[in-house]
Design brief:
This protein is an alpha/beta fold and 391 residues long. The protein has 8 helices and 16 strands. It is elongated and about 80 Å long.
C-alpha cells in the first residue's frame, strides 16, 4: 500500500537502479552524477550534475546546468539549457533558451525559443511562436513558426513556412522559403539556389547569392500561416503526450511488478468479481472521502484521499494497459522482459484510445476493462495486518 500511496500523490521518490533513475517532487535538485537514464518530474527542477544517459523531464521551471550525455526529452514552462548535450533535444515549452552546444538535432515546439550567440547545434526542426538563432547550425533548419530570426551560419539548407523570416548569416545548401515577409540582413549569403514566395512579391536576392540563383515560386504561397502553426503544434504535443504515457508505464511497471502480475491473474481467473470490485472502488472512495471530510480530524485525510483518487482516475487507462500487458504475458507464458512488457502496454494504451473513438460501445468496453483491472489490483493487495509473534 505504501508504494501505491507514494505513486498516487506523486511524492518525491529516489529510486537508483542500474539502468535508470526516477526523481519526483515539487522542487527537485540533482546534485550528484547519474550513471544511466534519468526521469524527473516536478514544479521546479534543477540539474547541477552530469547525466550519463538519457534525460526525460517534465516540470514548470527547468534549469539544466550540466552535461547530458545522450538525448533529452522535455516539457516545461520556462526551460534553460546551460549544459552541453551529447545527442538530440526534443522539447516543448513556453520559453526555451539554449546556451551550450548540442551535438545532435534540436526538435522544439515553444512560444519563444532562443539559441544564444556562440552556441552550435547539430540541426533544428521547430514549431512555435518566435524562434531566434544567434548561434550556428551544423545541419539543416526546417519547420513552421510565426517568426524565425537566423543570425548565425546554417551549414545546410532552410525549409520554412510561416509568417516573418529574417536571415542575417550564411546558408550552405538549397533552401525553400514560404513566408509572408522575408527580411535579408547585410550578412545574409546563400551558397545554393533558393526557391521562395512572399507576400512582398519578388525580392532582390542579387547581393546575397554566391554562384546561385533565387527563383520566385507561387506554389509556395502561404494561405494562412496560423493553420500550419496549429497543425504542427498538435503533432508535437501528441508526441510529447505519448512520451509521457510511456514514462508512466515504465514507472508503474518498475514499482509494482508483483502486484501487476497477480492482478493479471485475477482478471483471468475472476473477471466478474474483478469488475465488481473495480466498480466498488470508483464509487466507494469518493463516498468514503466525503464522509471523512465531515469530521474535523479527517478533513486532511479526505483531501489527500480525493487527490490520490483523481490521480488514479487520470492514470486509469495507463494502469489498465499495464495490467493487460501482464495478462498477455501470463496467459501465453511469453516471459517478456521489463522493456517488452512496457512497450506492449504502450501499444495496448494506444489501442484503448482508438477503441474510445467508437460511439458509446467503445467507452463501455474501456470502462469495463478499467473496472476489471482496478478490481483485480484491489483483490491482489493483502489487506490483513501482519501479526507479531513473540518468542
Amino acid at each position: 500500500m505504501k508504494k501505491i500511496f507514494i505513486l498516487g500523490i506523486f511524492l518525491a521518490q529516489f529510486l537508483p537502479v542500474t539502468a535508470f533513475h526516477f526523481e519526483f517532487g515539487s522542487r527537485v535538485i540533482i546534485s550528484q552524477p547519474v550513471y544511466g537514464d534519468l526521469y524527473v518530474g516536478g514544479e521546479n527542477i534543477t540539474i547541477n550534475a552530469p547525466v550519463y544517459g538519457d534525460l526525460v523531464i517534465a516540470g514548470g521551471t527547468i534549469i539544466i546546468n550540466d552535461t547530458v550525455e545522450n538525448d533529452i526529452l522535455l516539457a516545461g514552462g520556462t526551460v534553460l539549457f546551460n549544459g552541453y548535450v551529447g545527442d538530440d533535444i526534443r522539447c516543448t515549452g513556453g520559453n526555451i533558451r539554449i546556451s551550450k552546444n548540442v551535438t545532435g538535432d534540436v526538435l522544439v515546439a515553444g512560444g519563444e525559443v532562443v539559441v544564444d550567440r556562440g552556441v552550435t547545434i547539430g540541426g533544428l526542426a521547430f514549431c512555435g511562436g518566435r524562434i531566434t538563432v544567434n548561434g550556428n547550425v551544423d545541419g539543416a533548419v526546417s519547420g513552421i513558426v510565426g517568426q524565425l530570426n537566423l543570425n548565425g551560419d546554417i551549414a545546410k539548407g532552410i525549409t520554412y513556412r510561416g509568417g516573418t523570416l529574417s536571415i542575417n548569416g550564411s546558408v550552405g545548401d538549397t533552401s525553400i522559403l514560404g513566408a509572408q515577409y522575408i527580411i535579408l540582413g547585410d550578412k545574409a549569403v546563400f551558397n545554393k539556389d533558393v526557391r521562395y514566395w512572399s507576400e512582398q512579391g519578388k525580392i532582390d536576392f542579387s547581393n546575397h547569392m554566391k554562384n546561385a540563383k533565387a527563383i520566385y515560386d507561387p506554389a509556395l504561397r502561404v494561405e494562412n500561416a496560423k493553420w500550419y502553426f496549429l497543425g504542427m503544434t498538435s503533432v508535437f504535443l501528441l508526441l510529447w503526450y505519448l512520451g509521457m504515457v510511456l514514462l508512466m508505464i515504465l514507472i508503474i511497471q518498475y514499482l509494482f511488478p508483483r502486484t501487476l502480475k497477480n492482478a493479471a491473474n485475477n482478471v483471468f481467473d475472476h473477471p466478474l468479481k474483478s469488475i465488481g470490485f473495480g466498480c466498488l472502488f470508483f464509487i466507494g472512495v469518493p463516498v468514503a472521502a466525503g464522509i471523512t471530510f465531515l469530521t474535523l480530524v479527517g478533513m486532511p485525510v479526505s483531501i489527500l484521499l480525493i487527490f490520490a483518487y483523481l490521480v488514479l482516475v487520470l492514470l486509469a487507462t495507463v494502469i489498465t494497459a499495464v495490467v493487460m500487458a501482464n495478462w498477455l504475458n501470463n496467459r501465453f507464458e511469453m516471459k517478456c522482459s521489463y522493456w517488452r512488457l512496457a512497450f506492449a502496454a504502450f501499444w495496448i494504451f494506444v489501442a484503448l484510445k482508438l477503441i474510445t473513438l467508437m460511439p458509446v460501445i467503445g467507452w463501455i468496453i474501456v470502462i469495463l476493462l478499467i473496472c476489471a483491472c482496478f478490481g483485480a489490483i484491489v483483490l491482489s493487495i493483502s489487506w490483513r495486518k501482519k501479526s507479531t509473534v513473540t518468542i
